[in-house]
Structure formats: C-alpha cells, structure tokens
Amino acid sequence: MSDYKYATLAVHAGQHPDPQTGAVTVPLYLTSTFELTGIGTDRGWDYTRAGNPTRDRLETALAALEGGYSGHAFTTGMASLSALFASLRAGDHLVCSKDVYAGTVRLLDRFVSGYGIGVDYVDTSDLKAVEAAMRPNTKLVHIETPSNPLMVLTDIAAVCRIAHAVGAEVSVDNTFMSPALQSPLELGADIVMHSTTKYLNGHSDGLGGALIGSTEEHKERFSMVQKAAGGVMSPFECFLVLRGIKTMPLRIKQHEENGMAVAKFLESHPKVTKLYYPGLESHPQYDLAKRQQKGFGSMLSFEVPDREAAGRFLAAIKIFTNAESLGGVESLASHSATTTHASVTEEQRAMMGITQGRIRLSIGIEDKEDLIADLDQALATV
Q1: Which positions are catalytic?
Q2: Given this model, what pLDDT does residue 337 score?
Q3: What domains are defined for the chain?
Q4: Which residues of the chain fall below pLDDT 50?
C-alpha cells in the first residue's frame, strides 16, 4: 500500500476486512495458544508470545506508516528500547542524545552499561560532538528528536551519515512527532522507536511500544527478542492502537493547530521566561524543523521563575490536567523535574538543562480558545 497517501494508509494498512468473516474492524484474538494442524505444522500461529493475528495486523500497519521493512509491538515504550539494546554485546559502544527521556537514561545507566557496554551521552544537535564521539566499536547511535522536554532537534540525515561512516546504526525515538509528522527512515535512519501509548493510540487508555526496522536482519533480530525475552504487546492493546491509528491524521492536524496557537500565546506572555517550540521562528532550529519534519507537532515546554511558581500554575489549571504522558486527545501539563525526569540525579537534570521551573505541555484537541484562556488564568497565579 506504499503508493497511497498517508491518511489512506492510516485507515487501511493492516486493517483490511477479515478474510474468514468479512469483519471490517480487525478481530480481537484473545487466545494464548492455537490448534496445531499436525506435528510441527500450524495455520501460521502457535503461541501468542511468538505471534497473534491481531498483533500481526498492528505490526503490518506500523511498518507501512514508517515506510519500514517490519514492525514489532511491545508492552511499553521502555520494553521496545530494551529490545533495541538487547542486540548490543560486551565491548560495544552506544551513543545517546544527552537530552533524552529520563527512563532511557535509567535503563542505560542501571542495566545496559552493567553488561560491559559503553554509553556516552552527547549533544546530538552538535554534529562535531557526534563525530568526536564515534569509536571503532560504536554500534548504535540513539537519538530523540525533538527531545523531551527541551524540544531540541537533531539533524537525522547528518547524524546518519556520521554513524554509517563507522558502521554504526541509527535509531530514532519518533514518539513526539508520530509517523504523521516525521519519517526517520526516509532520512537515513535504520530503526524507528515509538511509545505507542502516545499519539499512535491517542486516547490515554493503553500502554505499548514499537520498533520498526528497515532490513530483513532487523526483522529476524526483533522477532527473536519477542520470542526469547517476551514483552510483547497484548492483543487487546494492539486492538486499541489499531483503532487509534485510523484517526491519527485527523487528530494530529488538530493537535498541531492548537499547539501553534498555544505557543504563540505563550511566546508573548510576560510570566513565561523561556519557551521551547520548534514551530516558532524564534526557535534556534526552526529551519531544521521545516526541512526535517512535516509539521511542528503539539509538544512544547516553557519556564516560570521557580518550583513554587510552577506549583501555583499546576494547581490553577482547569482544562489542562496535571499528569504525566502525552499525545492523548486531552491536554496535559507536567513538572518535568518531578515527573519525566525524576529518576535522574539533580546533576543530570542540570546537565540536561531541566530547571525546577520547567513545565511541559501536551496540547490536546479541545477548543484552542478555551486552552489559551485556561493557561492565561493559571499564569495569573504565578
């Protein structure tokens, strides 16, 4: 279906009518095991950890949306990262964006590095720093763009050229943009990662993660991790993500329209000391965002003077909800230092540039005038 436009892919990729019953919606196969047709033979499935018809449909859709060779669905975004890093061996070297979700840092520092794998955190927006970090044993460069929560962009195509020159692969966390607004594989990346909990599901009612590979070897590698280590997405969660994908192009349009409106409002607000949204010309990487992305999305962050001011703001919001996560139809606000980045040290937060006055917004699909009014009244308390 690669010749179809994106909105058509979202509705139809992996979601064709069921051949047995004609059901238009992908059936939910709530079974752990399948009847075998003989000794060593089956109808394509034998045990749900190894494969399930509902999960197969989702993985087909994920591959189509990202233009990849294969898709692989996991229980959470962190489970998908664990599967990604599982291919590294003692003596290998990994480069990771320094401004990245703290859960990724926790996984790398507390587990991956303990297996004898070297991990370096680099400002991947600085191509000279990326080039300097490369070693003969560098196997993977993992980038998050835009980053969480500073909204720093990494030039995917340029980093891929640097990494590929030394034989390293590049993986991109595409959660903030979604497949609708950014296509890392088209820019040269080897692997795309998602927390499907966010925009792909879109309704804050399920957890999941995904890897999309670009080669046959990736398919074999990630399928083996699914079988050997487990951590696969349940059929019901797959059903929810398939449902969410159908409306994702429409949701993303409204998310982005609202995100731009909110960003422009906050840019001129006297209580906001700093604003981070790549869709504004004031963002230092605005030109890169225009070149690399198909839109600017609905994630942004801003700063108020201190933790006390942030607390007053979060206590005053009415339409926005003070909660973690992102990408759902409802608007969320969170204090980065005590939510997404609570698991890293104060020194690490300082290195990343996450202050106690940092607030991250996930802009939903409500009426933008109501959202702006809510922010305005909450900022009046700061």
Answers
A1: 49, 101, 173, 198
A2: 92
A3: 6-243 (3.40.640.10), 248-379 (3.90.1150.10)
A4: none
